[in-house]
Amino acid sequence: MTIRFLIDAQLPPGLARRLAARGYLSEHVNRIGMGTAGDDAIWKHASRIGATLISKDEDFAALAAREPNGL
User: Fold this and answer.
1) Considering 6, 12, 24, 57, which has the largest number of Cβ atoms within 10 A of its Cβ?
2) Single pTM value for the model
3) C-beta of residue 63 within 8 angstroms of C-beta of residue 8
């Protein structure tokens, strides 16, 4: 099982690179053209690709609360 991470915009792209250097599949939203996307779009993308979303944005806590299994 591969662990996959999606890094949100307010965190540095270097975090995705550091995770990748340690063997984790990771992407930063800026590198995949979602740097200005809304929270819902980022949340849905992370869910669709099976990634754990890493963010400092408290709005994602509300999105997680409305999902039965979180993300």
Assistant:
1) 6
2) 0.86
3) no
